[in-house]
Amino acid sequence: MIRRIRLQRLAPQDRKAWQKQYYEHQKHWQRRRLLALKAIWDGQNLSEVCREQKVRWQTLVYWLDSYLHGGFDKLLEKAPVHRKQLLSEQRQRIVRYIILHKTPADYGIDSYQWTADRMGAVIAQKWQIKISSARLYQLFDQWELSLQKAHRDYGPTNACEQAQFITDLKKTAQLSEDSALIALDEFALQSLPYTHYAWAKKNTKPRILSDERHRQKLNGFLTVDVQRGTTRVDFNGQSTTEETVMVVVLTVLVYLQKGFSKLTLLLDNAKIHGKRMEIKAHELLNEIAQHVLLPTFSISFWHTPSYSPHLNPAEYLIHEVRRNGLYNVPCKLTVHEKAERIRNQLAQGSPMTDLQMRKLLDFIARSKVKRF
Fold first, then answer.
1. Do residues 345 and 325 make contact, with C-beta atoms less than 8 angstroms apart?
2. What CATH number does domain 159-196+212-365 carry, 3.30.420.10, 3.10.310.10, 2.30.33.40, 3.40.50.300?
3. Is the backbone of residue 316 left (phi > 0), alpha (psi -120 to 50) or beta?
4. E strand or H helix at 323
5. What is the pTM of this model?
6. DSSP symbols for 177-218
7. For the chain, which residues make up each domain, given as ranges?
């Protein structure tokens, strides 16, 4: 009786709030509690409410006491469900490690991207436990994991190959006068930059609009004489094996005209620089030799070690070309106008003097071998 009196005394001030709670909470178990409370306010006794709501006496008393001690928040609070954890703490750590450091392909699943279903299959295979996808996504959220765009990691280099390459590069200073080492690399010119600096609030990333469909692109092929520092640039709409063959053959013809007979082209390990390119270049040179008298010459291809762009001198020259010709240019310049700026820049001379080129080779020769 005392409980009913205390509840009915609260009715005048809480009836308006009750209506709001009833509209906001539409689940059946929530409305049962609210209707039971209103029935007590309207004068029904506990036994009548138990029969009407089909609830036990102890449960009804628990609801009413929750309201008396904590208001509507306590009344509508969902009782915690204590379930037995199928994944122990140790197994959870193992699953988290697998998510971060392994791929489904490592476990015989034909995919490189984890989903809850695929992780559930691995868990069932390892421990014969069935975990729902919803529970796994809860664990991912608990571990503060989210699906993000991955960045390519090129992995470790071959330390022995790097050391041998640096040793051979030091010997190029002793090449004969009719020999030339020519480094080749590609770069891209675009009408819009991928990104640039912009003002924004601290600890935020400014967003740059990117019109990918209408972005114009032009590929540049830069060759640099490693001993003499002279450069040459060609531009094409695409960067393919066929275009690389044409650049290589034109470079060879230019050096043959200058009186060189032993040519070595230094390339990275891009797909367009592979064996197919070398074969096609030799075939095209042989075809030209059938129509034009060419002097006796030899050409060889030398590739930098895998994942070692810092060992290619052309990379450093490309940086200088960009810095001198493309930094702080007007936004309205087209890719062809940018290409013309670079041609004019290189026509005035190499971005590096002979002394700077020798210092660059010394710098590359002193590069530390990366050991993993």
1. yes
2. 3.30.420.10
3. alpha
4. helix 313-325
5. 0.59
6. TTEEEEEEEEEEEESS-S-------TT--------GGG--EE
7. 2-75, 89-142, 159-196+212-365
Q: Are 313 and 224 in contact (CB under 8 A)?
A: yes
Closest alpha carbon to 114 in 122, 154, 125: 122
Q: What pLDDT does residue 281 have?
A: 94
The residue type at 276: R
Determine if residue 80 is left, alpha or beta; phi over 0 gives left, psi from -120 to 50 gives alpha, anything else beta.
Answer: beta
Token pair for 206: 């400014």
Token pair for 315 = 């990379």
pLDDT in tens, 288-298: 999 988 899 99
Q: How many angstroms separate the CA atoms of 145 and 133, rounded?
A: 15
Instruction: Please name the residue that has the structure tokens 């009196």.
Output: 5
Q: For 89-134, write each residue's pLDDT tens digit.
A: 899 999 999 988 888 888 988 887 888 999 999 999 999 989 999 9
What DSSP line would sit under 108-148, residue for residue? T-S-SS--HHHHHHHHHHHH-----HHHHHHHHHHTT----
